Records
---
Amino acid sequence: MLKCFEKILTFIGLKRPMYEEFRTIYVNHKQLQSKDQFHEEKYSSNHVVTSRYTALNFLIKNLLEQFSRVANFYFLIISVVQLGIDSPVSPASSFLPLVCVMGATAIKQAYEDILRHRADDKVNNALVKVIRDEALVDVKAFQIRVGDVVRIHKDESFPCDLVLLSSSEDSGECNITTANLDGETNLKTVYSVEPTKPMRSASSICKSLRARITCEQPTTDLYKFKGNMVVRHKSRPYDKVTLSVKNLLLRGAVLRNTEYAIGVAVYTGQETKMQLNSQHVRPKKSVIERRLDKFLLFFMIALLIESIFCTAMKWGYATLDGTVTGAWYVSAETATPWRVIQDLLGFIVLFNYLIPISLYVTIELQKFIGSIFFGFDLDMYFEDPETGEKLRAKANTSDLNEELGQVQYLFSDKTGTLTENKMTFRKCSIGKRTFCDDNGELWETEGCGGRKLSRRETLDGQELLFFTILALCHTIRVERPKSFDRDSAALAPNDRRYTASEAEVYTYQASSPDEKAFAEAARNYGVIFHGTESGVSILSVTSDGEEVIHRYRILHVLEFDSDRKCMSVILQRSNGTYWLLTKGAESSMLEKCSTGDRDSVVQYSGELALEGLRVLVIAHKELTEEEYRQMSLQLLSAEQDVANREERLIEAYKSVECNLEAVGLTAIEDELQSGVCETITALRDAVECNLEAVGLTAIEDELQSGVCETITALRDAGIQVWVLTGDKRETAENISLSAGHFTESMQRIRIIDQQSAEGCRESLRCGLEEIETGGSPLSVQYCVVVDGQSLQFLVANEYSELKDSFLELCRRTSAVLCCRCTPLQKARVVSMVRNGIKPEPTTCAIGDGANDVSMIREAHVGIGIFGKEGRAAALNSDYCFAKFRFSRNALLFHGHLYYVRLAVLVLFFFYKNVAFITAELYYAFFSAFTAQSVYDTLFLTIYNMTMTALPVLLYGLFEQHLPRHRLESEPSLYRNIAQNRKLWWRELGGWCTIGLWHSVCCFFGVAAVFLVNDWVGTNGFVFDVYAFGTVVVYCVLACVTARILIVTFSFNVPALIGLLVTAIGFVLVLCIYSVSTVTLLSNHLTFLWAYFDISLQPISWLLLLCVSVLALTPDIILRSMQDIRTDRLLRRRGTAGELPDAGASEFHYSADVQQGTFVNNGFERADRTEPDSHSGPHCSQAAGSSNSVQFSSKHTFHTNEAFEQQDRV
């Protein structure tokens, strides 16, 4: 019975089907032997579904999703209550707004889902060629089954995940791009299975191919695939071939530069890796949304208290003799429990409009449209000068716009984030000798930083060995001009000529910039890599003016992994000997090198790291035939073990990469990105053992432009920057200095090389003592340096006291640098800060690589950089752009405006509802607490939807309270909105107080006239309760509209149009309602012609004018005081010389290109300074000129103090 129930759940899609650990696939649905038992499992169809709804479940599913919101569910309960009691107002007053709000949301979601359905239909119905009955037939993509053999042509997208069987190329290879998967635009090579390479036609596959694939069940990892293929041959035993990700064609990838490719489907439909990675991630919740939930709870409690109070007053004070209930025409009531509950529910219904029903919809619209502005910002636009790629800033989500204005901790990667990830070969050491690169020429030097001794025209034995290893130990693909390929097409591979002049136009496509830098450097020195043909790497070496061609067959490539932290290649020379080449990080490679000059490697690696260069150790090992045979068998055995392949391969690699000889060192410099003051070098450490050390390489990754200014500005804005890198400590500290993350005046507290929790505890204690005894934080600044070895104790859950002490130490310092970090440690550091500091701070993580994804997802806000090694970070982030310096624009400008706009929008919604609905409470005292409404049902229905929604929405989209140049040039302004300051309870109290004052003026100002004489109308018109309520609504609407104008600093065309549309729309609605005889909102036509009668009474317009002026007087006074204080501040700063004195402050209209508005801003000066004049010290001054930084901090401190005074006002 249970199994039957599970099958039903699986059939209707409520439960995923249960599969074995591995799946067995028969290629082309044919068994290996005709006599074998043949049973194919049923796997997911190739029908792709990205939509959320169907025609059958849309209504129910959408309603459930919308009612999961507190406000919607609350109004549903109120509407149901109105149907069950003697409601004081028409149930339509609650149902109509609820239906309109939910209907608008449902229409939006339905439209978006229709677009998804259309996109799905286009993909599912695309024609694909599949081999059926020894012929290629066209079938629709959704009809593809696991085991089908599919043929894809050039520039077509793969419809499912395929294992490549053959291609139009003789080598069986094909080129693909995976931009739809990981954002990478470079070509990648996929290799076919060796036994199936010759099978290029439908007939040969149907007649000759009998194969069975055993592979893992589908996973989300795009870069891992393990399986085996057993192929039957007529003349020899079965072939068992190992399958890896190099044989896998992923759905969404596109075939390039290859006429066709043939593959067998292994994963289809929702089980493809692309679809598994498209699952919705749990949404993040912003600080404003969390505070909004508390505000809603507060107003619900206030509503309940008001209702209880009025109910008590009705059955207490109001039943006494002499009150209105003693009138002869009012029948006496008995206080029964049900009657009391009815009255309580009636007052809840009457006061429920205190909760703004349209708030959520307005916020969604404001966020969605506001996020579009993020991509329109031309200051965050970048065009890659090398590729010509145009990169705009992009908001992957609109839910966290305001969170950009609340960041307190920024965690940044280094390589590719702060640096260009554009590697340049700078220096190297070979044995005891050191060399440097000078414009593509190799010079021997006197030590790492010494003078140049002589230029190396030709390479000697050790030098040639060193650069030969650099030219071969990689996975580079060479792109040549097509003319070269045509000229050599007719020649046999061994007869082709490769020249140095031809190699000058080669383009090296590498998965790592390091490898590209090594290959280009070796090419400059005469050791040229010409590419790989049929598994053979071709190398030319210039010797005595002649070029000698060498060929090396690639036997195994031992890919880099985080455990080994190295990369190796096993080659076979033309003479049949075997050669193992390895490169990796110094910290791990030294343990693996048993021969070679290890002392020189240690010495030079430290010196090169101090120069900020990335250091790698180069090593090699000669293999005997017996050693290679054993290694090959061990690797083959590990690769064929599908269940334990990863673990066994790691062990096999470790045993292979031992007893090596260290050849040398390389040094690469990592350039910091513009706008980033800290550098993070995500160096992938390589762990090798017992090799022969040949030397070192040192490459430079250049710092991006604007990095120093950006980090300085972020620090002045109150954001503490943490740099998390995999680099050596010396390299990381040097980059931090050049990026402005550290300054020379900072005292460094180092927690490094700790092997135990007790050692970390002692280092933390010493650091805290040093800070406490070091004097004032203003006179002495500290920074923390911690390595990965120590971090494993500091972020571990079992050492909670270490976590607390480490956080306390970091909070007392100006900057933190974590070096030698793994990707997991980066995420744990972010989690430690996010969850360990109370109140919870807002964290932001920024990175460019796949190793930064976990950190980006862990932070409150994730920012991805369009990196050179892929787009994984950008695809998994909340916001992405091209350069680190754009984070200054994103946080200080966009984040600031997003937060202020949304905060004022939220406060304004509560304010206007308090000003509107509190009149019902006042009127209760005049109506004997009978729950009689002072307003007609129409006003209760449309107040939040049409009367007041549009102006505040446009305010939330276009308001700019400060000009852009001030927000970016005065980072301290960011401090004024930190910690959700605009939504503190006192801010809400201030807005609600103003709302109460406006409600008192509007109600009692009108009531005072009518209490004296209700015959104030002309032509015998008498103001009844609904006419009275209508005049009150006029006054409330005037006050609310004027209030939005008073708090506005930038007047723009959309806002003015919004006010005009609101006014005209209000008049038209009242006109239609006044002549309508349809009893939709009320059982009585109490408002028939009322609008026209009221509009003809002069007293109505006189009351509107007088009451509005009285109510708005405090608002005008407060705004005037704020402007006066600001003007005095600007004058004081001008007199002090911090800003040029421009005399009296004036209103100036300045066109803001990005916003498309005209700014009317009392804060702006006539002679405003350029933004760069206050952007902080340049990178070149960061190391030695700390006074400029202190001056900037002092300058912004006064600004911060002045604006805090304005907030208090």
Note: The domain at 423-483+502-670 is CATH 3.40.1110.10 (Calcium-transporting ATPase, cytoplasmic domain N).
---
Amino acid sequence: MKRKREQERAGTSHAVLDDFDVFLNHRGPDAKATFVAHLEEALRCAGFRPFLDGRSLMKGNPALQSIDQALEVAKVHVAIVSKRYAESKYCLTELVAMMRSGKPVIPVFYGVEPVDLRWVENGAFAKAFVKHKSRGRTQTKLQEWRDALQALSKITGFRSADYKRDEALLKRDVVNEVSRLTPSNQPVDVEQFRVGLDGSVNRCIQMLEDMGAGPGMLGLVGMGGIGKTTLAREIYNHFVTRRTFKHMTFLEIHRDSSTSNVEVRPTQSMDLRKQLLWDLLSVRDNASKSNYSSWFQKLSSLGPVFIAVDDVHKLGQFEELIPFTSALHPESRVVVTSRDREVFNIVAGKSKLNHHVFDVCTLDWNEANMLFNWHAFQAKEAAKGYESVAEDVVRACSGVPLALKVVGSSLFDKKWDGDKETIWQEAVLMSKKNKGVMDVLTWSYDSLPESEKHMFLDITCLFLGRSKEEAFAYWRSCKDCMSCGRVPWPHMSLRNLINKNLVMSIQDYHLQGGFKVHDLLKELGQEIGMRTKRHFVNGRDAEAIVTKNQGSENTMGLNLVRSKIQEFNAENFTSMPNLHYLQLPRGCKVNGDFRSMSRDLRSLRWQAMPFTHVPTGLNLSLLTKLDFSRSTSLVQLWTKSNNSLESCSNLRLLNLNYCTSITRLPDSMGQSLQELRLVNCKKLEMLPPSIQHLKGLTFLDLRGCTSLKALPDSVGALPNLKDLSAYNCTSLQALPTSIGHLSSLETLYIGANPGCQISSEDIGSGSAWTRLWQLQLENCCGLGSRLDYDAMKSLTILSLKDSALTELPESMGKLIRLRFLTIQCERLQCLPNAIGDLKMLVFLTLTQCLNLTRLPKSLGAISSLEHIAIRNCPVRKLPKSLGSLSKLRRFWIRDCKNLQKLPSSIRFLRSLQDFEFVNCGSREAKGASSTGLQDLLECGALGTLKIQDSTFTEVVESLGQSVPLDQLAVGCERLQWLPNSFGYLKRLLILELARCLHLTRLPKNLGAITSLERLTIRCCPIRKLPRSISLLSQLLELKIIGCKNLEKLPTSVRKLLSLLMFKLKDCGSIEAMGALTTLQGLPIWGSTSITKLPASLGIVSTLIVYSNSSFFYGYRSSSYDTLQVLEEDDSGFLKACQHKVSGKLALLRGVH
């Protein structure tokens, strides 16, 4: 008996180390030697560290203590419930702790059924509980065990009976589920040498962990350069290592490099929103505000998330990235860094989250010395003989990490004979005069050689947010220039600036490499640039320099983009004869003699330039970049008579995007051109044959050139062309044969005329495109079926939209790196079986394939597939193998009207979180849709469900009992009732009922969905709202639209105390429905006493009430004309308005 107990105990007793992540709860004698041992091995092979048995025990570590530690450390728990599982008190005690931990629990019902766990008194476990009772277990303990077993039975897990003795498949599915539930994030980069962080990191982590129930926010505040970002990165990496959060993102806000204010470029805000969607939801979206808000609401379905937002300097920046914190799971955490404590207080106050503030302090004396010595001497201690002078410099830096790092790096190579008495003493003398951080950084700048000073100012004033290649082209063009001071060795100078920590080089896909500079250093550079009259990047300062002729021979850069002046004289620029870099306001006009302007221009941006051609006298011969985009009046660049313009030997980038009047390009554009941008040049009919001389051209963008009929044969003579886009070129009739020879191509977009004649014989099979990673073909005469995919080993993204394409080759299965596949081919009849060989495919989209009636069985072999979208395809049935897609998270089916039913195997999609079934199913398939829905609900992880289909007549009763839905949209014309199980959707946040034309009532227990935040009822013939609606204590938004049978609002709506937006539209007269009296007492209705509208208004059928402008998006006052202000005071206003487009009357109530 004693040996038996030890054997049971050993089944789940483990030594606990911090790097174990999966806890295996099981009864050893039942399954350890077979299934459990194999599962443990499979988990280890998959990279996990599971607790199993004696092999994990440490000598001298009590078993029970090990179990407690294991439960605390593990991120995922797996309970293997066997027939005699309940006989072990150790298994049951562990199970209680597992269910209370709040961490994911995966049940494996090994030889038992979930029902056996629900009724232990009468089921398979009855004898075990009788034995426990006879052995003196307390009633409290027995009830704890019963409750834990019942709770486990309600979790959708794995039944060994479903696998028909195929334990290998069962083992694989359990491992996949562990993978899905286990956090897997990549750490962010941190400094190589870090000091003084451990204590701060530990205190911050403790603050985050002690925030209690609900999402929490931690603010890291302090001056610039103090180390807020470094600390935030360390905290982030801590949680990455511990795998506390499955989904994490680190968002860095960078201030607009073209100005000294704190604005952030809109494009950067969009990039950060895209990053958040990708990091947390694996969604690639355009991140427009409306779409972003919709996606952001889905975060609650992910479980706890960790979001770090670095360098917030005003509320709007935070709200653009995190529009509403209510979408965050209760255990989520947000870390915000800011220089301004008040900004953080506003952010935290508006978010209504539990929050703490941590003041990031300077380093203490020992830490400051270590950091400085590392950068100055590459050691923890100063070099012999430098101890005293090093301490003097450290003292001047006042413990600010950025200053210590920059100054130390600047002195690293200053240890030659005499340096200690000269350069080091200068640093000491400077420190004694002023201990300010900016002065310390200024000294680092002053110690640079002249060429590196010029480069530092150029980067901080002109090239932040620009590509590295653009900057190097600029510097190379000045190699022999005597006016600008030159940067003769740009690569070496940049390396020195990086080594001195004044500049960082970054990899950016859009910029193909760029620069990053700390904000303090950026401010320093721009201040020096203005003080020395070298660069003026602030719109107001630059404007004054021009209008007051205050420039000088030293002025090199001038940015007037933000100037409000729209008309200048060329003579205004005479005081700047050596100007190299000029950006003019969009659409501005420059009058006068252009010969008075600088002849040394290297970069000119003049968008929406108002002339028909380049103004006579404007010398552009030394340009490296010319941007005339959106110049709709521009007909031609220059005439043949202007030889100085034709040469342009340094021109690298020519941007003529949206020059809609230009008809032809000059024969000569220099021979150094690398980027030619011609997007939406709608009248451009041809490219000059001389394009073949542009041997350095890497980027050619012809999108939207709708008059372009052909590409010249000489385009194939461009050996370095990497990106070619001729998308939406609707007049394009053919492609030149030579395009098949472009061996450097990395991206190719072709969108031709539907009647074009393109064949693989003309351009070859694409066998030379070995570097191609993105290919998009539209209306290319079926070319996509005749390409040599076997040669395209690098292809990652493939999009085929071609009505002439009827089949795809089996060689498509050779695309071993393909991740995104989009097919929109009307005549395509089938997909190749080899599609199952695409082992890295993540996204599959099939749209308007009007002859595609079936999908290949091999679809289920694409184990990496996460997203499927099928739209407007006559597919009759889906393959059973669909159930094998263990990683599938999002499945959308729209307008597939021949679909008969969903396969029963859909129940095995354990990772499925988002399912849409819209306008699908044949009329004869009545009832089959509901059956498919029943199978779908057994997935267990479903968070978002949208059903909009006429074949559905009922929603199955199990809806509220099976899945943790947080968003539900139902739009079924024939649906007559909703099940009472709706009340069990305890995690539901958003509910939308639309065009349910036979739905006359809502379930009485609707109010039981206490988590609900948004409720929309649209065009449904309901007669009344249930009284229980008053119980929706978290409801923020209520919309009732087009429900013409609605008789009256219940008085219980007054109890919706959290409501921020209420809309009642086209449901009849708002007075007849009693809205003006019923809403009295509702907080967002405020204190208005009006209960009757003036007769002169007639019937008003729209009422919009709001208390927060973010919930009034789409119904802004600007969309309405005010007819009459009925009431207005400090609390808010009540207005009768008329919609500007529809002309309908509306009553708007806004509460301040």
Note: The radius of gyration is 34 Å.
---
Amino acid sequence: KYLGKTPSEFKMIAVLLGDLDNSDGQGKVYFRHDSTPNILGRAADHIRQGFPDGKVEKPTNTFIVTWENMAAQGTSGRGDQLDTKRITFQLVVAYTASSAWAILLYPRNGLQFLYTSIGGERKLLESGFNEGLVGWFWKKQGLYFNITSDDEASITRSGVWVYKIGSSPFFVEIQPGKVTSSPENEGTETRYTTSETLQPRHTTPTPSEPRYTSEKPGLQQRHVPAPPRSAPQHPQIVVVDEDLDVNVFAYNLETCAHNRHKCSAFADCRDHSRGYCCHCRPGYYGNGKDCVAEGKPQRMNGKVNGQVFVGNLPSPIRLTNNDLHSYVVANDGRAYVAISNIPDSVGPSLQLLSSLGGVIGWAFALEQPGYENGFSLIGGVFSRQAEVVFQPGNEHLTIKQEFKGIDEHDHLVMSTDLDGRLPAVPLGSTVQIKPYKEIHQYSRNFIISSSSCNYTITSPDGDVQTRSYQWRQSIIFQTCPYDEAGWAGATLTTQQLSVDQIFVMFDANNHLIRYAMSNKIGPIHSSLLEQNPCFSGRHGCDINAVCTPGEGVRFSCECTAGFAGDGRYCHDIDECRETPSVCGPNAVCSNQPGSLRCECSAGFVFASDGKTCVVDHCQRGSHDCDVPQRALCRYTGGSAYICSCLPGFEGNGRGCRDVDECQQQDRCHAEASCSNTQGSFTCQCRPGFHGDGFHCSPTFSEREKTRCEQQRASAVADSDVPFSFRPRPTVGRYVPRCDERGAYEPTQCHQSIGQCWCVDANGQEVPNTRTGPHSSPPLFTPAPIGPTPRPDVQPIAPGAYLLFAQSGKIEHVPLDGYIMRREEAKPLLHVPDRVVIAVAYDCVEKMVYWTDITGPAISKASLTGGDIVPVVTKELQSPEGIAIDHVARLLFWTDSTRDTIEVSKLDGSHRRVLFDTDLVNPRPIVTNPAYGRLYWADWNRDGPKIEMSNMDGTGRVVLVKDNLALPNGLTFDYENQQLCWADAGTRKVECMDPHRQLRRNIVEGIQYPFALVSFGRNLYYTDWRREAVVAVDRHLGKETEEFLPQKRSRLYGITTTATQCPQVYNYCADNGGCSHLCLPRLGGLSCRCPDATDGQCEEKVL
């Protein structure tokens, strides 16, 4: 209400004026009364520092409010949390029987943002002091300070601001603290100056840790006056410029009650005398914040950046976001690392850098009795720096790695930066690295180690060279500071990492560098090798099993958590199927290897405990706010929400009425008329004046024609009719339409060709808005002024792309010919509460269609940006396949629970079931518009098959039934009339000519394909086990390329976006004269009625 309207007539102290948000659960507001001696003493110290002249009575009580991790309204709901800036600040009201003081505390990093959105407008935050009107007879504005400003320095200003409030009910003594002398404070070194200015600070506290730490003795303070906004003769406010520790008024937030959510889901939280710690439960290991199941293989993903000089070359080879993927078999200590997109110029030399992946081996090394690997000791969050020196050339290279913990897919995330020089290794050379040992020395929060290693280089001509390198490394991490005895590293001061079976290779064909090694962690001076297979790694347990040692060489294998079997063979347990209610009500369970993931259903969000799904009435539409055209519903946590009227309306949010701005003074120019509209108003200059209505000037002569009017006059003048008649344009000539002010109307039409399109303010056509002769003109809304919400769909540039589904999103990868431009891959669409299965593309309207099984629903969105549009939302259970006939404008889909194949118009209307018999698990479906054919696969394990029919449901036949197992993926190549499929059971990709039924193998030995698409000579398929998109050259019969998304999880449907539609035709191009559904068939068409007919439908066969 008062933001932007200060200074005001009344007295006011503003802690922070702005629209702040804590609805995402990260922001918290705490308040309490506190009369403990320590708090009262610290409050008195601050008051004395602000008011050194007078006698200050020690407060008898305080009221403390803390705003922690608050975000600006509208910035915390994007899901990624990457760009959300947060602020923490505090108000302390200290009082006695006769007076009161306000103490405002802004910690280090101060205000991290300057603006919030109020009623759609960007408003500057305000914080400070307003004395109001002063004087008895002649009122004038008193002292006014605002510590926020557009000045960038104010973002990081920290300190304490002290004000005297006085006593109620009149509060006539309100005044800011003054600086008149330099008092001496016991225990601190205090200096008062008037010349120093505040300097910005640039430190970022760890987001997952509390911002308040324990009080440090001997805190160094210096009191610096802040420059006031008023005249310099006014007294100045005291500000403490320090690394302010607000814990002088802190809550005991270091308890499990406040921090249990910071522990791993597989850990217990325990309170200690000074704080809390997280401890992994039995069967899991880690630091409590990151816990993984014993025996379970681990994946690490990350990016590699940096610059590397090779040999004597003067210029470096730059690495930019190269994908790094690692896989560790935890029960035998074997680690595999691969880095992609490595140039030939540096690939051979990178073979020497096995230490790049050595830290991954250390993290999950096979533990000898009484010793622990890196992850057991410190978890998955740490920093590593290694200095490597190669001999005899004395080349130096630095490796910096940040390990960032476990992501939502249970994968560890890391980043690597390389800087330095490597010895030159000729292309085609092989490198063999000898086994080595590495001594690790442990102290709290710090590990150091060093080692040396010998290696041989065998060049392509057979020349062998033996060389060596040394390295030193340091690892920095954070243990729980409250449990001294509980950290294993407290007793393990030294350990030895033994590395052998080292394999390095540069794959020049695929531009991959690969490392593999076996790792064991144990004592330093032990020469006796452990004979038990659990400690040697030669046990034969499944990779998802724990090896438990017994007496002598006896041992047992037991499947790790989330897997079942005899330990020699373990298979994943589908917890979602076995315990359907495991995620609770209003949630969707998604099975993961060894675990599960719970996601809230549409219209629900996680509560603050991160487990319970509560209704979001705003998203669900079950709120009682006024209609969206007048009011905004804002979710505030739990099941609560707030209704507020939009700008231009007034009311309580549940009922909003239009504000007649024309009744308010000075809305328009004096020579303009005001017209009220819903939520707004317009101004128009009166006759004899011109302007925009807000500024009007007299018109002394005929107004100069606008650009639109000039173009219209030119078109009309080019007429061949006699001048004596009213001018009209030449037949076939386009004449622009102008409004009464001479501006281009947003929608323009060319009557002769029967087309309409949208234009911008300059009359330029807006791309992709032109309609045909029988289409209605597009609805065009001029672009709004100011910031707009981020659309669900991110527009993409023209060209050919691969689109693939990955759980709650659809990503796109540009194609350069047949090469995937992996570095340019990015999400097209985010639907975080959905599981997207199949995707299809309409080349006519440039729309992507998809099915999701959580709605369930079929939806669409434009590649050029915009909103998600529901297509089919009723009578669906598990829609898993989708196909489009772009000529007949038809949509086909399979439902594996209803066991049906259905068809409708592209907008979801005129829906009809084509088949509902002899189907068990129908999934992929594709069309052949030129022949009016439909193909689908049924992965029924007892009788898998691929079938064909006409699009009208006639002519159903089984095309393939032999040598099939799990035909998941299906695609049709229009150009070559080839039907291809990917089978996850036979692990093959095959193709056939459906007309002559000639069948051939394309590639064998693949892993677990899910979906398949054809593009030119290539086939592209998604693979569940590799979690990748794989390219196959049909002519060469081999895989040529692999794309691994940055976030690894199962990939589902895949399709392509062609630059133009295939040049094919069928009899339903203009709906074939049918009243409802026109369904093509070989050599003709069928007019069919939808299942829900209105009685006006006529069926016929043509």
Note: Residues 587 and 600 are 4 Å apart (CA to CA).
